[in-house]
């Protein structure tokens, strides 16, 4: 990793009132996503009868994932001049759909940089929302091209996971969740670049300091884990390798890292097959068809966090479901 020294103790971050104010700004553009308690013999077999998971079903959000919160927040706060020059985003897919939605909502021209391996469903959704698409060779090239386009064309970057606007937007999810279920003992949140995790953890910990917040990353995309271990941010050597493309950030970045470091209690790692198994469990037991990232928190709960969450009321962020039917069944068929 390329080293960048960080000091979370000097960090400026949104307070709870800022999250509530932003939720009001977004109210007309977002859905209030439901929560669902997981109660079944399967759950009892996997976790015991005394563990009480509560799912925050953000997969039902507009644009199919939590990403709409950060994208709409960022675009809503642009100046008239910035909106006139247009925006650019780099994405593995979900962020691109959300930015295209935000651009359409606020009447802004958008260019979305995606890898050639992008899920076809997400690519079509971006185009259907009216954004221009530029494809590059791989996920490792997306963010570099995003910055180049911004410089060449004068567009404003809507980053997929870095910056206070992203954390402010995603924090509305955390604030919303703890209002819906105020007696949570723990919350598990997926980590890609840290945009979702920073906001959720920041809101949850300020609302309820004794609630544990666990982050979860794929083994092959462990950028935040490495940042926590070294207190530095930078590129992941060799690039991310995981079926969870939504969690495959090629690097960690200073702001999202610093907020995560301040508010997240622990990060755990999961294998791709653990996500595939969790996808199948969610589909068969709760009739939820989620992408791999959307199953990450369930995989963590029935895997590395099982003992720590025994006997507790645990919130799971089910973050997205932008996956095609064929791809979904290909991933779960051999599990």
Account of the 3D structure:
The two termini are 34 Å apart. The chain is α/β, with parallel strands linked by helices and 335 residues long. The chain has helices spanning 16-26, 41-47, 67-76, 80-85, 94-106, 120-128, 139-153, 164-180, 195-207, 223-230, 254-263, 272-286, 296-302, 325-332; strands at residues 35-37, 52-57, 87-90, 110-115, 132-136, 156-157, 186-190, 212-218, 266-270, 313-318. A 6-stranded mixed β-sheet has the order 1-2-10-7-8-9, sandwiched between helices. It has 2 domains: 8-60 and 163-332, Rossmann fold (3-Layer(aba) Sandwich); 67-157, Rossmann fold. Helix 6 links the parallel strand 4 and strand 5. It contains 14 helices and 10 strands.
Label the overall shape. Answer: globular
Ranges with pLDDT <50 over ≥5 residues? none
In total, the number of strands is 10
Main pleated sheet: 6 strands, mixed
Q: Tell me the β content.
A: 5-15%
The spatial strand order of the largest sheet comes to: 1-2-10-7-8-9
Termini separation comes to 34 Å
> What number of domains?
2
CATH class of the largest domain: Alpha Beta
Helix and strand content put the structural class at alpha/beta
CATH architecture of the largest domain: 3-Layer(aba) Sandwich
Radius of gyration, rounded? Answer: 18 Å
Order of helices and strands: HEHEHHEHEHEHEHEHEHHEHHEH
């Amino acid at each position: 990793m390329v080293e960048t020294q960080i000091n979370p103790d000097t960090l400026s971050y949104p307070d709870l009132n800022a999250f509530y104010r932003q939720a009001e700004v977004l109210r007309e553009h977002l859905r209030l996503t439901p929560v669902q308690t997981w109660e079944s013999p399967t759950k009892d077999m996997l976790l015991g009868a005394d563990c009480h998971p509560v799912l925050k079903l953000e997969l039902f959000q507009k644009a199919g994932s939590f990403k709409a919160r950060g994208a709409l927040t960022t675009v809503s706060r642009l100046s008239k001049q910035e909106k006139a020059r247009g925006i650019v985003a780099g994405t593995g897919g979900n962020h691109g759909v959300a930015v295209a939605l935000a651009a359409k909502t606020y009447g802004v021209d958008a260019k979305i940089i995606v890898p050639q391996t992008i899920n076809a469903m997400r690519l079509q959704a971006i185009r259907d929302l009216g954004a221009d698409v530029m494809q590059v060779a791989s996920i490792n090239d997306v963010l570099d091209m995003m910055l180049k386009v911004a410089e060449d064309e004068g567009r404003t970057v809507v980053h997929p996971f870095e910056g206070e606007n992203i954390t402010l937007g995603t924090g509305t999810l955390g604030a919303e969740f703890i209002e819906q279920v105020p007696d949570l003992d723990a919350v598990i949140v997926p980590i890609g670049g840290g945009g979702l995790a920073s906001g959720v953890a920041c809101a949850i910990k300020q609302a309820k300091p004794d609630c544990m917040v666990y982050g979860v990353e794929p083994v092959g995309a462990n950028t935040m884990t490495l940042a926590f271990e070294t207190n530095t941010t930078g590129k992941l050597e060799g690039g991310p390798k995981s079926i969870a493309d939504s969690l495959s950030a090629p690097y960690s970045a200073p702001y999202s890292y610093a907020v995560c470091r301040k508010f997240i209690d622990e990060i755990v790692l999961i294998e791709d097959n653990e996500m595939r198994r969790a996808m199948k469990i969610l589909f068969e037991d709760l009739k939820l068809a989620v992408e791999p990232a959307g199953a990450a928190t369930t995989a963590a709960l029935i895997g590395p966090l099982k003992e720590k969450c025994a006997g507790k009321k645990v919130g799971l962020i089910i973050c997205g479901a932008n996956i095609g039917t064929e791809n979904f069944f290909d991933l779960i068929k051999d599990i």
